[in-house]
Amino acid sequence: MNHIVENNFEERKLVERILEGDNTSFSAIIRMTERLVAQIIFKMIDHPEDRKDIAQDVYLNAYKNLSRFRFESKLSTWIAQISYNTCYNFLEKKKLVLAGDFLDNHGSDEDHYFTSRSQWHDENGHDPARKIIEQNRQTIIVSALEKLSPVYRTMISLYHQEEMSYEEIASVTSLPIGTVKSYLFRARKSLKDSLENHYKKDEL
Known about the structure:
By secondary structure, the protein is an all-alpha fold. 70% of the residues lie in helices and 0% in strands.
């Protein structure tokens, strides 16, 4: 709890300095959030040049709107929200498919796919042979992830890689928590189906 309060105090002081005219302090915000921003942009936007432009837009928007930040969430969550919205608006203008097909109703089976984060991490230790197997598995997973829609990829990334809670993801995406859970379920199911198809082909 003290760590959270301390971080909140430091963020407030940092924002205050920027709003008072210390523009160089904004570089500290960039350093704090650039990994998270890059994760979101990389998962949602395919072309490198577009990614660069969007990253610039994200921080420009954050700088322009910093006075509106009310510390109702972490500063990183607020900037992640700007990143997501900037990417989403870009995709919408391009008329790209954002979240895939939502016509299927999977009902109560959703809970089956709400697995713990630990199942997505390597548990194979330092065995060289197992490490090679794990690297191959990761390559297959990355390939399967690339086939998901931008929103699905982002949901997977925020939950499993950035370890955000459902509430934080809901804040970033401006979606209800129930929708976040539904998107994650469908993203996992699509990923699971893709991986199953891959291994079935290998067995032929």
